[in-house]
Design goal:
The structure holds 2 protein chains of 2 kinds. Chain A is of the alpha+beta class. Chain A contains 10 helices and 7 strands. In chain A, strands 2, 3, 4, 5 and 6 form a 5-stranded antiparallel beta sheet that branches. Chain A has a two-stranded antiparallel sheet with strand order 1-7. In chain A, a hairpin with a 6-residue loop joins strand 3 and strand 4. By secondary structure, chain B is of the alpha/beta class. A 5-stranded mixed beta sheet of chain B has the order 1-3-2-4-5. The chains are: A alpha+beta, B alpha/beta.
Chain lengths: 314, 105
């Protein structure tokens, strides 16, 4: 490609408005409770509490409630909420009359299995097999880190977009029309190959056939959309290539083979079909675009953790 | 009862038990991960449920045989017969409503 970056705007100089992180204490508690619940123990008991397993005999004129040895969890709503709630505090052998809107049901509790949930301990945490996490404190830190990572992920896309816009606007490019045409062709060929693998001809696809696949109604619209976006794709590629020239990023045949293998597996294709949809040239082009995104994303992440120090939330 | 991870070899056997919830999920499907948590919580709350998960990415032939067009798809089997099918994430309360209707019928 003859196109190139003439002068590069340093992305480190893009002003970013990084939001501050607020810990969701309730979500943290819920996660700890989930872990404790997963280790609940069940033991034969004498009286019913919410969450216990109850086995009972039912007597009623209503067909649904004419049965013995019915098993459910009290208070769960899985059988009948009114009956389940009426059994709270009932004892084994006790007979309880429950009036439902549709009629009377007599319930005899024949067996109760009490559910006991212990506080989270290190052993429960170790059962999770999380790398570097073997105590409750470490798990709590892990959960905080997860929350921060989710928060970062939710803002990352927009911030990387801000960086890209600023870098593109602040840099100078020499763009050749033949390169723009090549970028558009790569994308159109990709779409054509995928369509072909689905038994379709991209040039004659109907609006119904495009629906749910590509947000256009005709091949002509697809060409117009691709041509419009290809200037930006080309700039992004050139920026990625520019970064690669100084940071040592390269695209290797080995990575390409791994990508093809993964692509073929994900889309249930043969190796040949995967290579048709993802030719080497497209892979190189896309990899450089992604390289630029990755660098900008890594910068956003670094700035995020400078502003939101994880240790202040532990 | 621990959640069972089915394969092409044991899938039919696992869904033929008295009442079974089957989660057809995909490796790259984000909503499937959310639904996995719903099922884990349900399994902890109701330990006698039979829950079977089938990875449709690894077992496309089973997904095709059971006409799975999207993931997650949740199917409910009673004595090997399909009694309810739902495409998309279900809440725990949605699942309990299905249990209430079919588990005790």
């Amino acid at each position: 490609m003859g196109s190139k970056v003439v002068s590069l705007f340093d992305y480190h100089d893009v002003p970013l408005d990084i939001p501050t992180f607020t810990l969701d204490g309730e979500a943290l508690t819920r996660e700890l409770e989930r872990l404790a619940n997963a280790h609940a123990t069940w033991e034969e008991g004498q009286s019913v509490s919410s969450g216990d397993m109850v086995i009972c005999d039912l007597l009623s004129e209503l067909p649904r409630y004419q049965r013995n040895q019915v098993r459910f969890i009290a208070g769960s709503g899985m059988f009948n909420r009114v009956i389940e709630d009426a059994l709270i505090d009932a004892r084994v052998g006790e007979k309880i009359e429950v009036t439902l809107p549709e009629g009377l049901v007599t319930v005899t509790v024949t067996s109760v299995v009490n559910r006991t949930v212990c506080p989270v301990d290190d052993e429960m945490v170790r059962d999770l097999c999380l790398e570097g996490v073997s105590t409750v404190d470490e798990y709590r830190r892990h959960l905080v880190s997860q929350q921060m990572a989710e928060h970062l992920a939710s803002i990352r896309f927009n911030l990387v977009g801000e960086i890209e816009r600023a870098v593109v606007e602040g840099s100078r490019f020499e763009l050749e029309e033949s390169d723009w045409e090549r970028a558009a062709s790569l994308e159109l060929n990709r779409c054509a190959a995928i369509a072909r693998q689905e038994g379709l001809d991209i040039k004659t696809m109907t609006p119904e056939q495009f629906a749910g696949r590509i947000p256009v109604r005709s091949y002509e619209e697809l060409v117009a959309m691709t041509q419009e976006t290809s200037w930006n794709s080309l700039r992004r590629f050139l920026l990625g290539r520019c970064y690669a020239a100084t940071d040592g990023f390269t695209v290797s045949e080995k990575d390409y083979r791994a990508h093809i293998e993964e692509y073929a597996k994900a889309w249930h294709l043969t190796d040949e079909q995967a290579r048709e949809a993802q030719p080497w040239e497209l892979y190189c082009f896309t990899s450089h675009c992604i390289h630029a995104y990755d660098l900008w994303g890594a910068w956003v992440e670094r700035r995020y953790y400078e502003i939101n120090d994880p240790s202040s939330f532990y | 009862m621990p959640i069972q991870h089915a394969t092409a070899e044991n899938f039919e056997q696992l869904v033929s038990r008295d009442f079974v919830i089957v989660d057809f999920w995909g490796t790259t499907c984000v909503p499937c991960k959310l639904f996995a948590r719903v099922l884990e919580d349900l399994d902890a709350e109701i330990p006698f449920l039979n829950i079977v998960k089938l990875n449709t990415t690894d077992n496309p032939e089973i997904a095709e045989a059971y006409h799975i067009g999207a993931v997650p798809t949740v199917q409910f089997y009673k004595n090997g017969q399909l009694v309810e099918s739902h495409v998309g994430v279900m809440s725990a309360d949605d699942i309990k409503a299905v249990l209430s209707e079919h588990l005790y019928s």
